[in-house]
């Protein structure tokens, strides 16, 4: 998959916001894992944006485990 242009990546961030909100409301524990499909989309966006930019856009904390996104690994 080719990296998105900054404009395309910015547009891809917005529709995922409600999906992260729904995940937050439905997770069983406060530290529940991000669903694989959301994680895959977040990882794809790190080809264009920094991990911090992607994490902050959805209210996540950019932690060292999120840095694994650069390598496509699960949290």
Describe the structure.
The chain has 75 residues and is mostly helical. The chain has one domain. The chain is 51% helix and 0% strand. The longest helix is centred in the first third of the chain and has 21 residues, at 6-26.
Short description:
This protein has 75 residues and is mainly alpha-helical.
Task: List the topology elements.
Blueprint: H1 6-26, H2 36-45, H3 51-57
Mean pLDDT: 79
Any low-confidence stretches, pLDDT <50, length ≥5?
none
Largest sheet: none
Instruction: Write down the secondary-structure element order.
Output: HHH
- Summed up, the domain count is 1
> How many strand segments?
0
Structural class: mainly alpha
Structural Rg = 12 Å
User: Beta-strand percentage?
Assistant: under 5%
What's the end-to-end separation, in Å?
Answer: 21 Å
List the total number of helices.
3
- Overall spatial form: elongated
List keywords for this structure.
75 residues, mainly alpha
């Amino acid at each position: 998959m080719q990296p998105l242009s900054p404009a395309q990546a910015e547009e891809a961030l917005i529709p995922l916001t409600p999906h992260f909100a729904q995940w937050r409301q439905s997770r069983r524990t406060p530290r529940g894992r991000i669903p694989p499909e959301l994680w895959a989309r977040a990882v794809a966006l790190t080809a264009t944006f920094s991990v911090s930019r992607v994490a902050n856009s959805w209210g996540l904390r950019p932690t060292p485990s999120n840095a694994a996104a650069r390598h496509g690994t699960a949290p």
